[in-house]
Please model this.
Amino acid sequence: MRLRRENRRADAREHLGLAHELLSQTGADGFAERARREFEATGAVVPRQTVRPSTTLTPQEAQIARLAGEGLTNPEIGAQLFLSPHTVEWQLRKVFAKLGITSRRQIRATLGQRALA
Model:
C-alpha cells in the first residue's frame, strides 16, 4: 500500500497481486479482499471471487434448526439456548440459506434427508 501511495503503482501491483493470491489461497478472505481493493487501485483488474457458502451447519445452527423443526418459536429457542430471539432469527436465516429452504416447515424434512444421506 505504501508503494501505491507513493505513486509507485507498477512496484505496488507486483506485491499486491502476490499478496492477494496468497491470502486467497490460505483462506484469509478479509485480508485477501483488502489486498484485492488495493491491487485494483493500482489500475489492475482482478475478478472478484465468488464466495462459496459452506453447506455444513455449525453445531449451534444444527441445534437451532432441530429446535425450530420441533416447532419452537424464536423466543422459546433463545430461552433454551440463552440467546436473544434476534440471534436465533439470524442463525435461522443462515440455516435456510445453507439448506436451500425458505420456511420453517421445510426444516424437519430437510434435516431428516440429510441424516439419511
Remarks:
- Residues 99 and 114 are 9 Å apart (CA to CA).
- The longest helix spans residues 9-26.
